[in-house]
Amino acid sequence: MPCGRTVLCLLAALAACGAVAFLGYCVYFDRKRRGDPAFRRRLRDKRRAQHQKAEGRGAQVWDPAKNEKLQELFLQEVQMGELWLSRGDLRLGVEHLSNALLVCGQPEELLKVFKHTLPPKVFEMLLHKIPLICQQFETDMNEQEYLEDDRD
């Protein structure tokens, strides 16, 4: 009768051999797949389709000048919001802060900052304002698309 240590060593060796065989299997078929001309063609076609789809959706090339203008607008809106809040006009302050959220590249992060820096009442007002600014933004975008279609 084999001792427990021998059985354990055999099981460990068997597990190691299985792991090596599995990794070899993965590497072999991955190389075979990548070397297949049909796979490369499908991959190229898929990437082209995604690129064309993105262009069709109105994706535009990144423009540094636009980015700078958005940053300036963002900072201006945050400053105006802070100014109105310091003067005690919560409605106008929240209006400007919500505009800043609209042009911000990372609105989730900005909301986290606002949560820790704004009074709870103001932050709550801002949270209630978010659906309204999203609806307004969608309406403005639809009007802009309609006007662009009329030009064509």
Q: Helicity, in percent? A: over 70%
Q: What distance lies between the first and last C-alpha atoms, to the nearest angstrom?
A: 88 Å
Profile the largest sheet: none
**Total of helices:** 6
Strand residues, percent: under 5%
E-strand count = 0
Tell the overall outline: elongated
Using only C-alpha atoms, the radius of gyration works out to 29 Å
List unreliable stretches of 5+ residues: none
| Overall pLDDT score | 82
Secondary-structure-derived class: mainly alpha
Helix-strand topology string? HHHHHH
Brief account:
Helices cover 88% and strands 0% of the residues. With 152 residues, the chain is an all-alpha fold.
Give an overview of the whole structure.
The chain is mainly alpha-helical and 152 residues long. Helix content is 88%, strand content 0%. The chain has six helices and no strands. The chain has helices at 4-35, 37-56, 64-87, 90-103, 107-117, 120-151. Helix 3 runs antiparallel to helix 4 and helix 4 packs across helix 6 (120-151). The longest helix is centred in the N-terminal third of the chain and has 32 residues, at 4-35.
Question: What are the salient characteristics of this protein?
Answer:
152 residues; elongated; mainly alpha
Set down the secondary structure blueprint.
Elements lengths: L3 H32 L1 H20 L7 H24 L2 H14 L3 H11 L2 H32 L1
Helix pairs in contact: 3-4, 4-6
